[in-house]
Here is the input.
Amino acid sequence: MSMFQLTRQLGRVSLCNAHSFILPRTSLFSKIPSTIFTPPSIFSRSITMKANDIALNTLRDNPGAKTQKTRVGRGIGSGKGKTAGRGHGGAKSRSGRAKPAPGFEGGQTPLYKKMRKYGFTNAMFKRVMVPLNLNQLQFQIDAGRIDPSQTITMHTLYRANAITKISHGVKLLGVGAEHFKYPINIEVTDCSATAREAVERNGGNVKLVYYNRLGLRALLFPEKFDVIPQLARPPPKLLPKYPEWKEIIAQRNEEVRRRRVAAGLPVAKQPAPRTESSKEATAEQ
Here is the structure.
């Protein structure tokens, strides 16, 4: 019986090609004497022949681990010539093509444009406050960048680099309130209850002042203004938060007036106080 007939009867061996046999590891083949069937070593396709037979010249990738790159546009015989597998025209055949935007429906009016809008938002009018904690303020005072004996304004905080950018104002927060120990007078846009309690416990005072965008810019960069603008009145919704706004505006406007007089600049005339006769004349009109 030939070797091929033997393996065919057993039904456990398959000839893959002319160079290799794939033999199952079964107890059936263990019973065959080695003199009858021993696979030639030239048919082996493994990386190493033995467990300790490894060297630099025998290192290689596993079969099939590395494939050759497909070269497109190199003739019709490859199957990837002419149009390089992209077909004839269309968005998918263009270079730099990206996925369509979410909601794009091929050019027709998308569903989200067919539906009506609901609600509204006032996000564009939101007043964003820059947070300033008491531990940050104490660090600046300990470093000698801020004098606690003087009134601390947002201009003082900005020049001391305690805050880097102010859009609408500064809010004083109470992180580190238990360790704060300076009696300060500070003017900020908003303040938390914990921070106010900590400052007043040390004998200090927190004053809330309102600045619009122009007034805040004039406070931070007075050198950019030839004429310092007067303070604006808080909007009606914020009036309860600034109960002393009238006194603050009058004080600041008087200070601006004195600066303009000292600089020789024109000063707006103060309106005459209204008398009872003027009030009655206005009421008759």
User: Anything to note?
Assistant: Residues 195 and 258 are 34 Å apart (CA to CA). The first helix runs from residue 3 to 10.
